[in-house]
């Protein structure tokens, strides 16, 4: 290898502002680009009669009936969004300590997945595997003597993944943070002939305070009460641990990995992407979205501009794509 150093001229020969002077040069030298292909749209589905129900803590986001959901996924597809992530709002009377509804093959999430797949092809459907929408205590796993038990939870998660795959789910997204769940779910899917169903692991998922509006949206907040998920989700103080989590999920068969939340965790996205070279996704979570929207509505910031800036920041950090509640809205503007 030649040791010749590239010339390093300084000012005034070098003026970095020359490349910034015109819009067209700025476009030419841009290192990252945002497009609709980067977007995954999370949507809430409910089984009531109302086509749409507002979510007070998530401005401009609504819980949709199955019929509305199918229609809106059609819009997303037309705009070129590659995938949607569907989250069910489960009726309180169907929630239980053991989360049996999670593996009822006719449950709301399975109905929603089947309805989308029936109406549209060419757009991916992803759904979470975790028990929190279905548990009376609001936790992602089973509770025994006040503790979330790991191995017993894995059995239920596998059953949940299978019913969702049977309904037509393309991408199973374990979001529960139990140890060993990706490997078990992969094996369960393969055993049932679903070897082509993908797994996007919520690999580095933090015990964040930014999930509040999501828990309002799916109605798990009252179940969880004042509880937290610190015994299974990660401590926001940690970064090396995120790499260990991601490495395990890759070894267990994850096709794609995710870091969650988003903007506060860009360092994690960058470390994960550069270490593992995996398709790496960021989840701009409900609290982040709500903060931006609320500040925009109050005239404190320009929502469109700040929102775009947040999304390009994910790309710069190395994200392959972003889950964001603003996907449909921004897709209309990007096209
Ligand atoms: C369920 C799940 C959560 C989110 C995605 N899947 C909430 C949680 O873990 O409590 C959060 C998404 C968001 O805040 O937008 N395990």
Overview of the molecule:
The structure is a single chain. The chain is of the alpha/beta class and 335 residues long. It has one domain: Aldolase class I (TIM Barrel), CATH 3.20.20.70. The protein is built from twelve helices and twelve strands. The strands form two sheets. The protein has an eight-stranded parallel β-barrel with strand order 1-4-5-8-9-10-11-12, surrounded by nine helices. The mean pLDDT is 97. The structure holds ligand PBG. Ligand PBG binds next to helix 6.
Précis, in short:
The chain has 12 helices and 12 strands. The mean pLDDT is 97.
Secondary-structure map with pairings?
Elements (H helix, E strand, L loop, with lengths): L22 H7 L9 E7 L6 E3 L7 E3 L1 H14 L3 E6 L19 H12 L4 E6 L12 E3 L2 E3 H18 L3 E4 L6 H11 L6 E8 L6 H7 L2 H4 L15 H12 L4 E5 L5 H11 L3 E5 L1 H12 L5 H15 L3 E4 L2 H8 L1
Parallel strand pairs: 1-3, 1-4, 1-12, 4-5, 5-8, 8-9, 9-10, 10-11, 11-12
Antiparallel strand pairs: 2-3, 6-7
Helix pairs in contact: 2-3, 3-4, 4-5, 8-9, 10-11
The protein binds ligand PBG.
What's the count of strands?
A: 12
How many helices? Answer: 12
CATH level-3 fold name: TIM Barrel
Spans of 5+ residues with little confidence (pLDDT < 50)? none
The CATH H-level superfamily is Aldolase class I
Secondary-structure-based class equals alpha/beta
Distance between the termini: 45 Å
Q: Kindly report the spatial arrangement of strands forming the biggest sheet.
A: 1-4-5-8-9-10-11-12
CATH class identity: Alpha Beta
How many structural domains can be distinguished in the coordinates?
1
Radius of gyration: 21 Å
Sheet with most strands: 8 strands, parallel, barrel
Order of helices and strands: HEEEHEHEEEHEHEHHHEHEHHEH
- Helix fraction by DSSP (H/I, runs of at least 4): 25-40%
Q: What small molecules are bound in this structure? A: ligand PBG
Architecture per CATH nomenclature, i.e. the level-2 architecture: Alpha-Beta Barrel
The proportion of residues in beta strands is: 15-25%
The average pLDDT is 97
Large-scale geometry: globular
